[in-house]
Amino acid sequence: MIKNILLATDGSEHALKAAKYACSFMELNPAVETTLLFAYDVANQYVMGADGALFVEPAILEGNM
């Protein structure tokens, strides 16, 4: 019997499929302990230009990240 689930997600379609699969286990056994890990690439959010300017994704400035 599965006792622990580590569900890692990055927001991709594959991660969504894995989450649905994990939910099916949790429905069968509500006592299963589940840990959720959300991963994202910080390097894609901050980019420094050749002149030293720092460009930031607008969503970060708006507090949506």
Explain how this protein is built:
InterPro entries: Rossmann-like_a/b/a_fold (IPR014729), UspA (IPR006016). Residues 1-52 form the UspA domain. It comes from Heliophilum fasciatum. This is Universal stress protein family protein. This protein is α+β, with helices and mostly antiparallel strands and 65 residues long. The chain has one domain (4-61). Helix content is 31%, strand content 28%. The protein contains 2 helices and 4 strands, in the order βαβββα. The strands form 2 sheets. It has a two-stranded parallel ribbon with strand order 1-2. Strands 3-4 form a two-stranded antiparallel sheet. The chain starts with a strand and ends with a helix. The mean pLDDT is 80.
Any descriptors?
Rossmann-like_a/b/a_fold; 65 residues; rod-shaped; Universal stress protein family protein; UspA; 28% strand; two-stranded parallel ribbon; single chain; 2 helices; two-stranded antiparallel sheet; alpha+beta
The separation of the N and C termini measures: 36 Å
| Total domains | 1
Overall mean pLDDT score?
80
**Widest sheet, order of strands:** 1-2
Which spans have pLDDT < 50 for at least 5 consecutive residues?
none
Strand-residue proportion: 25-35%
Order of helices and strands: EHEEEH
> Globular, elongated, flat, extended or rod-shaped: what is the shape?
rod-shaped
Number of helices: 2
Q: Bin the helical content.
A: 25-40%
